[in-house]
């Protein structure tokens, strides 16, 4: 997928519209609906699960990164959003771990 989100829709939309224009309304609508379902499933469910499987970051961080990254920065945000949120989350975890370690050292 060269252009995320837009790439498959060029194909799904074109096939659906051509089918509708040729008189195959049901086929055209079904292509558009199933294309939307497949694309939504991969973007919002499968991709974050695979990304979380290979990292130790909560799935909600990736999901928010994908959604808000795309909303705020467009297509580059799909890549930059999860990266920024992942780094921020990792820094937060390290910071809380250090604070806990320091508080335990002070007590002893």
- pLDDT average, as an integer? 78
How many whole angstroms does the radius of gyration measure? 21 Å
Helix content: over 70%
State the secondary-structure class.
Answer: mainly alpha
**Cα distance, first to last residue?**
56 Å
- Please give the oligomerization state of what you see: single chain
Tally of strands: 0
Number of domains: 2
| Count of alpha/pi helices | 4
- Reading the helices and strands in chain order gives HHHH
β-sheet strand percentage: under 5%
What's the story with the biggest beta sheet? none
Low-confidence stretches: none
Give the overall shape, derived from the CA principal axes: rod-shaped
Summarize the structure.
The protein is mostly helical.
Describe it.
By secondary structure, the chain is an all-alpha fold. It has two domains: 1-54; 56-108. Helix content is 84%, strand content 0%. It has four helices and no strands. It has helices at residues 6-21, 25-53, 59-73, 77-107. Helix 1 (6-21) packs antiparallel against helix 2 (25-53), helix 2 packs across helix 3 and helix 3 (59-73) crosses helix 4. The protein is rod-shaped and about 80 Å long. The mean pLDDT is 78.
Could you name the key traits of this structure?
single chain, 84% helix, rod-shaped, mainly alpha, 4 helices, 108 residues
């Amino acid at each position: 997928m060269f252009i995320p989100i837009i790439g498959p829709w060029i194909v799904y939309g074109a096939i659906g519209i051509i089918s509708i224009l040729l008189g195959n309304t049901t086929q055209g609508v079904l292509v558009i609906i199933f294309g939307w379902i497949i694309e939504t499933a991969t973007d919002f469910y499968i991709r974050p699960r695979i990304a979380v499987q290979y990292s130790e970051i909560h799935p909600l961080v990736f999901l928010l990164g994908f959604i808000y990254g795309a909303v705020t920065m467009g297509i580059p945000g799909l890549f930059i959003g999860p990266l920024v949120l992942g780094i921020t989350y990792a820094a937060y975890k390290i910071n809380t771990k250090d604070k806990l370690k320091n508080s335990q050292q002070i007590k002893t």
